[in-house]
């Protein structure tokens, strides 16, 4: 993640190369945005943002399920590899 100074240099370089009329994504300062998120100030209607705990739990469950699938695939590949090595070592004749 670039600092504001690094971003400024990048923008100057892009302008020099003639890309001034092209579009970019919305740029934010991460430290300010995280501070706003922690403070959770009410908006014009007096509403505060809430954390979606249910969504977080659902995502973490999906991630752990995916992680379990990856581990089981890795284990099965390792079993096949061990069998192959054992078979090769048994069939190899000493020289």
Describe the protein in words.
The chain has 95 residues and is mainly alpha-helical. It contains 3 helices and no strands. The chain starts with a helix and ends with a helix.
SSE layout and pairings?
Layout: H1 4-16, H2 30-39, H3 53-91
Short description:
The chain has helices at residues 4-16, 30-39, 53-91.
Question: Which features does this protein show?
Answer:
3 helices, elongated, 95 residues, 65% helix, mainly alpha, single chain, 0% strand
* End-to-end Cα distance: 57 Å
Number of strands: 0
The Rg value, from CA coordinates, equals 27 Å
* Tally of contiguous helical segments: 3
Mean pLDDT: 75
Estimate the global geometry from the Cα principal axes. elongated
Give the ordered list of helices and strands: HHH
Helix content: 55-70%
Biggest β-sheet description: none
Structural category: mainly alpha
Low-pLDDT ranges: 52-58
């Amino acid at each position: 993640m670039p600092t504001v100074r690094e971003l400024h240099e990048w923008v100057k370089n892009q302008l020099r190369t003639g890309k001034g009329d092209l579009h970019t994504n919305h740029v934010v300062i991460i430290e300010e945005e995280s501070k706003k998120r922690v403070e959770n100030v009410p908006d014009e209607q007096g509403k505060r943002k809430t954390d979606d705990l249910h969504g977080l739990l659902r995502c973490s469950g999906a991630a752990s399920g995916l992680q379990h699938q990856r581990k089981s695939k890795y284990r099965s590949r390792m079993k096949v590899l061990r069998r192959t090595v054992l078979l090769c070592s048994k069939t190899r004749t000493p020289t």
